[in-house]
Design brief:
Elements lengths: L12 E5 L7 H5 L8 E3 L11 E6 L25 H9 L2 E6 L9 H13 L7 E5 L4 H9 L4 E4 L2 H27 L6 E5 L6 H12 L6 E3 L13 H10 L7 H9 L27 H5 L1 E7 L13 H8 L4 E4 L4 H7 L19 H19 L5 H19 L1 H24 L4
Parallel strand pairs: 1-2, 1-3, 3-4, 4-5, 5-6, 7-8, 7-9, 9-10
Length: 431
């Protein structure tokens, strides 16, 4: 994998990070040939550079809303961009890259309106601004509702971080899961695993749906609740979502049962809820016993949109990498991401039409059917379907350990870097 470096920038593109940070999600995890394109400097060392990139780290797009303030500070993130960087961007010597690659935010019009206003007041063309995010649907929504000219690049921080961890530790983790599975009392094993951090309404509805169809009792499931640092569980919000998607077969009793069990973790977990300050810690955390005690992952993704968000997170990739048959309750076309990065899904063993459904109610109903089917298969060792399932899981585990990082860098990061180089060349022409 190689990139054509802009001839006018010499060996590498001078790059800096502001907002009192040393790095950003993308710069922290980008690898391969891409890393050689950046010559990182302190922002004050770029004053005399003919052109440079300035990365602005964002927790999310919500940080760009007019009334947003940094945690524990009365500052807007735009207030922390130095004046000499702003002047350089206005003069065509600098382009700004807002890095929210750790999130897959929905389109937030007020954030972009505020950013546009800030740019106009400082004489910075929109063409000199780029945004890194996970949500592949942002560009068309942004063009439609603002008519703006900001560029968009895509990168998946937590996924790349987990893939890097698997390359380093995956062989040992897989061996430990296999070892623990051999020593277990089979009566302790449940079919399904469904791990949850933030108690989002779509996740409560998923667990309630599993209960409504008699599957929750055969499921190891967790939900951290308010200890995740991201909000309290809300029965009213879950009911509202249930009503919105017209999934009347999920009853109030199903929702109330799930709510009554939150917060819930596994008794053998090494992460204790009273010590956990932020559920993002769980992104790279793996409990081998959790996977040894279960056979199939039902992944409750961060969102379950009707298609206005297009991404997956490390939650899906974690289950796939660790050799679990996996069903994904997320956005439509979630499995396309998995396949594009060299992993295999289970469409020749179970019906994966649920992944194509734009209605979350339809997705839940089809997902439940897929779960019933896959339970029959994992309970039939020696069958042709079971052997095929095992082959797919083995491929995914091996791919995660040996090739997945290279595949991700050769697809997602190669495309990003190609566009970023073109963005740098174009940014110098708006003087």
């Amino acid at each position: 994998m190689s990139f054509d470096k802009p001839m006018s920038f010499g060996a590498a593109i001078p790059t800096t990070v502001v907002c009192n940070r040393d790095t950003t999600p993308f710069l922290e995890t980008v690898g391969g040939a891409a890393g050689s394109l950046f010559a990182q400097r302190r922002h004050h060392e770029c004053v005399d550079a003919r052109f440079y990139l300035c990365f602005v780290p964002l927790l999310s797009l919500y940080a760009l809303m007019p009334d947003a303030r940094l945690i524990d500070a009365n500052f807007h993130v735009l207030d922390l961009i130095p004046e000499h960087v702003i002047a350089a961007a206005a003069a065509g010597r600098c382009a700004l890259v807002f890095d929210a690659g750790s999130e897959g935010d929905p389109f937030i019009k007020s954030s972009f309106d505020h950013l546009h206003c800030w740019l106009e007041q400082r004489g910075i063309p929109q063409e000199r601004i780029a945004l890194i995010n996970q949500n592949r649907m942002l560009p068309p929504q942004y063009r439609q509702f603002t008519g703006g000219n900001i560029s968009f690049f895509f990168h998946d921080y937590y996924i790349k971080r987990f893939l890097l961890m698997m390359r380093e530790r995956g062989l040992g983790l897989s061996a430990e899961i296999a070892r623990q599975r051999q020593s277990l009392n089979r009566r302790e094993v449940k079919t399904f695993l469904c791990m949850n951090g933030t108690p989002r309404p779509n996740r409560v509805c998923l667990l309630a749906a599993l209960r409504a169809r008699g599957l929750l009792a055969d499921c190891q499931w967790s939900m951290l609740g308010s200890v995740s640092g991201k909000g309290d569980p809300n029965a009213a919000a879950a009911r509202a979502l249930r009503n919105l998607i017209e999934a009347g077969w999920i009853t109030d009793d199903d929702i109330d049962f799930v709510m009554s069990k939150i917060p819930r973790v596994f008794s053998y977990e090494t992460v204790k809820i009273d010590a956990l300050q932020d559920s993002n810690y769980l992104a790279n955390h793996v409990s081998p016993e959790t996977f040894a005690l279960t056979k199939v992952s039902i992944v409750s993704e961060t969102e379950a949109s009707s298609g206005d968000i297009d991404r997956i997170t490390e939650k899906t990739i974690k289950a796939i990498c660790l050799g679990h048959p996996t069903i994904v309750a997320g956005n439509p076309r979630a499995l396309e991401f998995v396949r594009s990065w060299g992993f295999q899904t289970f469409g020749n063993v179970i019906d994966e039409r649920y992944d194509e459904a734009t209605s979350y109610a339809d997705r839940l109903a089809l997902l439940i059917e897929a779960a019933v089917s896959i339970r029959e298969i994992v309970d039939s060792p020696g069958s042709r379907a079971h052997l095929r399932l095992s082959e797919i899981c083995r491929h995914n585990r091996d791919h995660a350990i040996s090739d997945a990082v290279t595949k991700y860098e050769g697809t997602v990061e190669a495309e990003l870097m190609k566009k970023l180089v073109a963005f740098c060349e174009a940014s110098t022409s708006f003087v």
